[in-house]
Specification:
Layout (H helix, E strand, L loop, with lengths): L1 H14 L13 E6 L4 H14 L2 H4 L4 E6 H5 L3 H5 L5 E3 L7 H6 L16 E5 L1 E2 L10 H5 L3 E2 L2 H13 L4 E5 L7 E2 L2 E2 H9 L6 E5 L8 H9 L6 E3 L7 H7 L5 H14 L4 E8 L6 H14 L3 E6 L17 H24 L5 E9 L6 E5 L5 E5 L9 E10 L2 E10 L1
Helix pairs in contact: 13-14
The chain binds 5'-deoxyadenosine and iron/sulfur cluster.
5'-deoxyadenosine (5AD) binds next to strand 12.
């Protein structure tokens, strides 16, 4: 979501005649887009912002602004803590940017600037109506708002006209999208009907919105990539209840089971929180056993971080930081071995890879993704271009990355 917002902000700036600088030292405007989801995210943003202060010595006209969730979460106190800042701007006030920077009272909100030629993020929903007990998002991003389908489809048409073929629909609980009579599955269908769209992804769905109507379209619409990032957070029903996640371990595993019985290679990734207040060793082990059962292709794993103002922040933390770290390490170790096993299942398979970019490490290799969202490295061919689809055979694994060799190309 932040990446998408940055792209939208870049579009607003370009619309006002501002262009990217080659380096921070050359910039007249620096905007830092921040995240508040965990304490660490805020701490690293603050360290980064302090680093920028020195640039004001060489450029007296430099304006530094802090945007994103931290601007909402910390508000005016940020200006006190970082007195060299020129302004802060929370996500619900981005339309004020031209006014702040250029005294242009007629704000324009063009579509987000494309960050690459092959794929576009398209926000369809903002805010979150869930109240997961640990999460700050509903407080900083507000109530859910759904974007009008006509505007979504128009943005997709503009992106595909510029050569994009992969569409990533975005929302905090993206599959809860609805607009008048239009459900999320119905919107997916409309996006799939756009001829130039070849691959569709969406992040992040919530397990409670996995209706049979949605499962049906996931299985029947070829353009929807066989991958989902479906945050589970914990494998213990008692912890899920305290977290107010509104589903059980069993209900979650049923979704996994439906997707994998349809396609055993369906890519499923997740988010896990370790050391939630009061999580017992046994409850933690239920998360380990869920990982064993679900066999995720990958996971983002975090130690619980109390966020002021959320219900769980007022619960006593009995688990020491060291124990949280130990638990985190245990899930990471287990998940790494499962990720590797899942990668091995791809060996020998023929896959269509969407080429993303030349490898940064080795310019004789390209990096791309399979439909089930596995990263693949392929030896460069003279006609390889960003956004091209190439047929590959998966021949090996390096770390967690697959190695492919091209068979023939198609557009
Ligand atoms: N502590 C740790 N992790 C958190 N997340 C959200 N809030 C917290 C918190 N207070 C994680 C969840 C979510 C991901 C975006 O960040 O796993 O899915
Ligand atoms: Fe946070 Fe829960 Fe909303 Fe996700 S669904 S953004 S974890 S409150």
């Amino acid at each position: 979501m932040n990446e998408y917002d940055s792209a939208r902000l870049a579009a607003i700036l370009e619309f006002n005649g501002v262009f990217p600088a080659f380096a921070p030292e050359k910039a007249d405007i620096i905007l830092v887009n921040t995240c508040s989801v965990r304490a660490k995210a805020e701490e690293s943003a603050i360290a980064r912002i302090w680093d920028l202060k020195k640039l004001k010595i060489g450029n007296k006209g430099l304006k530094i602004g802090v945007l994103g969730c931290m601007a909402k979460n910390r508000g005016e106190s940020l200006l006190k803590d970082l007195p060299f800042l020129d302004f802060i701007l929370p996500p619900d006030e981005y339309q004020k940017l031209p006014e702040i920077l250029f005294h242009n009272p007629a704000p324009q909100t063009p579509f987000a600037k494309l960050s690459n030629k092959y794929s576009a993020f398209i926000a369809i929903q903002s805010g979150c109506n869930m109240r997961c007990a640990y999460c700050i998002v509903p407080y900083v991003r507000g109530r859910e708002q759904y974007r009008e389908p006509a505007s979504i489809l128009e943005e997709i048409e503009v992106a595909t006209a510029a050569g994009v073929s992969e569409i990533v629909l975005l929302g905090q609980t993206v599959n809860g999208y609805r607009y008048k009579g239009l459900s999320f599955p119905a919107l997916l269908k409309q996006v799939a009907n756009i001829e130039q769209v070849e691959r569709i992804r969406f992040i992040s769905p919530h397990p409670i919105h996995y209706t049979s109507e949605l499962l049906d379209i996931l299985m029947n619409e070829q353009k929807i990539a066989p991958h989902v990032h479906l945050p589970v957070q914990s494998g213990s029903n008692s912890v899920l209840k305290k977290m107010k996640r509104q589903y059980t371990r069993e209900a979650y595993l049923n979704i996994v089971q439906s997707l994998r019985s349809f396609n055993p290679l369906y890519g499923i990734t997740t988010d896990i929180i370790c050391g939630y207040p009061g999580e017992s060793e046994q409850e933690f082990e239920e998360t380990l056993s869920l990982l064993q059962e679900a066999r995720f292709d990958g996971a983002f794993m975090f130690a619980y971080s109390p966020r002021e103002g959320t219900p769980s922040a007022s619960e006593k933390e009995l688990i020491t930081e060291q124990e949280k770290k130990n638990r985190l390490q245990r899930v990471i170790d287990l998940q790494h071995s499962i990720t590797l096993e899942r990668a091995k299942l791809m060996l020998g398979r023929q896959e269509i890879i969407l080429l993303e970019k030349l490898s940064r490490r080795n310019s004789s290799e390209w990096v791309g993704k399979t439909g089930n969202f596995k990263k693949v490295i392929i030896p460069a061919q003279p006609d390889f271009r960003e956004g091209m689809y190439v047929d590959c055979v998966i021949e090996g694994i390096r770390g967690h990355t697959l190695k492919g060799s091209p068979i023939k190309k198609q557009m």
